[in-house]
Structure formats: C-alpha cells, structure tokens
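Typical record is below.
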Amino acid sequence: MAPRKGEKAVTTLKNCTVAIAGHLGDEWSSESVERWCSYNGATYSNIVDADVTHLLATPKQFKDRVSAVKAALQYKKTHIVTKDWFEDCLTKKRHLKETPYSLKEDEKKANAKKRREEKAQKAMEKAVDFVNTTTNHIYRDSTYFSYEVLLTRQGEEHVERYVLYLFESNAKPHLYHFAAKFYKKPRDSHPGIYRPSQTAKRFSREFAEFKEFFRQKTGLHWDDRIAKAGTVLEGKFQYQPPTGGKPVGIIANPSPQDKTIPTLDTSTGPDLPAEPQSNKKPQVQPTEVIDLTASPKRKLLIEDIIQQTGKEKRQRLDNGDASSLTRDHKRLKNTVTKDTPLNGPGAARNIPIVIEDDHERKPKTKGELKKEEADNLEKLVSAELELRQKEIRPFVDAIFNPEKDEGGIQGVILD
C-alpha cells in the first residue's frame, strides 16, 4: 500500500526484498508482511530467487530445511533471519545488522561447539593411554627447538619409527610429561604407546626419562646427538638432526665416558728436560697492601709493615708495653691484600683495612658537641671575669688601702 497523500515515505528497509519460509505466527501472514514492507520501503516476494535479500524463517523451518530455506541457501547474499529482525527494524526505524538474528550464524556456532566437545572427548579418551593434547603442548627450549624427536630403523619389510614427545602444560606453574609412540609400519593407525609416568611431573624428572629412552633406542647419549650424527649402531634406531639452519636444541657437556684427559706424547719429538725438584719453599713476592681509607700515596708493602711492627714489638717487649702490642696485633689482623680471595676457606678474615693515625679522631655525637660547647662557653666567661678583676683590682686597693697606692691612682679618683 502506498503512503497517503501528504505523508512522507518511510525508507527503513529500502533496497530490501523480503520473503517468508512459511507460517511465522498468527499475525504474520503473507498479506501482513507484504503490507508492512510497503509501508517501510521494502519489496515483498512470493518466491525465493536471487533477488531476495532476506528470508524470514523459524529455527525449526531452518533445521528441517524446508523448500524456501533450501532455495535461499543457494545464494550467498540472501540472509536467512528470524522474524525478530524484521520487527526490530520497524520498531527502531532503521536497518539493523543481520548477524545477531542470522540462523546461518547460529548453526555455525552450534557446529563449532559440537566439534570442540567432540575434540575434548577424544582428548580425554586419548589421555588415558597417551597425553591430553588439549591441556598440554610440545615443549620448546630457549633455542626454540621442538621436543618432538623422530627415530627411524629399517625393518624387515618397513621402516620402523619412534616419535618421542616432551609435553609442557598450558597452565602455570608448568608440569611436564614424556611419552613415545612406536609405528611398526607406515600409516599405522594404532601405534604402540609408551608413557612411564601416569601423571605430569617436574621438568628434571621427565627430561631424564626422555634422555634415557633416547639412549636405549639409539645407543647414543642425548648430548652427543650432533657430534655423532649419522652414527648407526647394529639393531639401534638412528636420529637425524634438523638441517637448513633450524634449531637443534641445547648442547650440554658430553657424556662422561667420552671425556678424555689429554696427555703429552713423549714417544716422538725432542725430549724435554725434567725440572729439578727442590725442597725449598717458594719465595713469596711482596704484595701491595690496599688501604681502603687512605690515598694512593699512603699505600704500604706488607713486608715493610711486618718488619716495622716486628722491630717495635721486640722493643716494647723489653719495655713491657703490652697495650702497644695489642694495637699492632689488631693492625696486622685487619690487613687485606689484592690477592686475598673474596670467598672460600681463606676468606674468613676478609675485612676492610683501617689504618688509624694518631691525629685521627672518632666523630663526635650531637650530645658530645653540645657538652663541649657549654664547657667552652663556661671557660670563656670565667676568663672574662678574671680579666676584669685584674683591671679593677688596682683601683679597689687604692681606695681601701691608701698606703699601697704606688701609682697615684687615689689622686686621680679624687680629682
């Protein structure tokens, strides 16, 4: 129905062609939908073809795939939405997005949820014999080497394979799990499973299991896998390291049996003269003493200190001065040299040097400074009083003892 004369045309659903998949409700007949479309600038269609932009359907009609839904599914640009989209557009008087009302999107979300649930169920069933790959991932070390190691061996008919895995948990703190699969032939859908630990453990435990299994199957230690790459032992599997600049993993120290101590071969070449052995003790070179509080000009030699203090000790022993000896003993005890170790058995006496001079004094506290200031003030006042007494003493004597007035001070006072 066209708008009345004088009324402004509504273009809420302009350029939209609407169709229905069937009965949508008591008030949603085809005539009602056609009338609403004409009021809001849309076009109504009785058939579903390439021109239809929106098909109104119920979830049951979409699930049952009625004929109108099947036809709309053939066209990608045709939106299959619920009647709520059409009603909300008319209520709010604007063209709303179709995604929240799309039955296609609802079906995609439902299928994705179903796939996740099936995957989780398979992972749980798989975890009974292997490792739950949903909650764990392949471990990678600091070089980004993936701990999914392939071992191969040529069998009687097929190439046999072992795949070693070291898994790391997604959650923190990380736990680890070692497991292995054995494929007796290519495309073996039921490989053998080896998993020594029923539950995840710390890295050191599971990595030790990983390395031990590698040693049993290849005859090589894990840390020798690069140095002895290509080595094939009888009845053992072979490991081929990654090539083309790919990470090969961390290489630790070689196995203990591979460590050899180099020896000097004296069978060839000139004979070297043997060093003469002597019972003399090695002479100790003078070592410079570090004075942490003094300037470089005041650095001394430890031997000079020993000689000087030793001579003074002998003199003081003769004089019986025990306090000086105690001071010298502390002075020597606090001696630190550049070569003295900072830790270990010989570092028990590693304390900073402080060579005290006679003129150096200990810093005074605030209380001591205040007391000293008060004493100085008292001395100053006493000295001032004493000076004034000396100045007025002659005048007092001249007044009260005229006989002793030798300088004529009385006459001056009387004038």
